[in-house]
Amino acid sequence: MYAVIQTGGKQYRVVEGQKLHVERLPGNPGDTVSFADVLLVGGETPKIGRPLVSGASVSAQIVTHDRASKIIVFKLRRRKNYRRKQGHRQPYTELKITGITV
After folding, report:
1. Rounded mean pLDDT, 15-21
2. Is pLDDT above 90 for 43?
3. Which of 26, 101, 20 is closest to 57 using CA atoms?
4. Is the torsion defined by CA of 47, 50, 56, 59 positive or negative?
5. DSSP label at 82?
6. pLDDT for position 31
7. DSSP code of 9?
8. DSSP characters for 12-28?
9. What 3-state class would DSSP assign to 6?
10. What is the predicted pLDDT for the residue at 102?
């Protein structure tokens, strides 16, 4: 059984036991979070939401909070002596999916 959930403005296909990186969520490592924004539940008889599947939820446990690897943002205007270099590390939360209920 799998589900498609929505969090942080993105959609993720999840199965039970999967580890997943999502946008930073409030809470401490070890806490459980529940996602009620379930768009689809697949399996033997798939349930498709319009836009959400009523009564369905996905529970997960927070494993850790971390930051992704650094990316470099470099802006340049040729012949104008304009250069800007900036680094960015996006924070994320690592989750472990513990259950899908319909």
Report:
1. 95
2. no
3. 101
4. positive
5. E
6. 95
7. T
8. EEEETT-EEEEE--SS-
9. strand
10. 83
Return d(Cα 2, Cα 16) in angstroms, integer: 7
In sequence order, what are the residues at sequence separation of 6 or more whose Cβ sits closer than 8 angstroms to the Cβ of residue 16? Answer: 1, 97, 98, 99, 100
| CB neighbour list of residue 24: distance below 8 Å, 6 or more residues apart | 65, 91, 92, 93
Stretch among 14-18, 49-53, 63-67, 70-74 having the lowest mean pLDDT: 49-53
Q: Are the CB atoms for 52 and 59 separated by under 8 Å? A: no
40 neighbors 48 (Cβ within 8 angstroms): yes
Q: Which of 28, 41, 35, 40 is nearest to 8 (CA)?
A: 35
Task: Determine the distance from the C-alpha atom of residue 98 to the mean position of all C-alpha atoms in its chain, rounded to a whole number.
Answer: 15
| Tokens linked to 31 | 């806490």
Task: Compute the average pLDDT of residues 24-31.
Answer: 95
Query: Global pTM?
Result: 0.84
Q: Dig out the tokens for 1 from the structure.
A: 């059984």
DSSP 3-state assignment of 55? Answer: coil
Output the six-digit token pair for 66. 């971390």
Q: Name the residue with tokens 């990186």.
A: 21
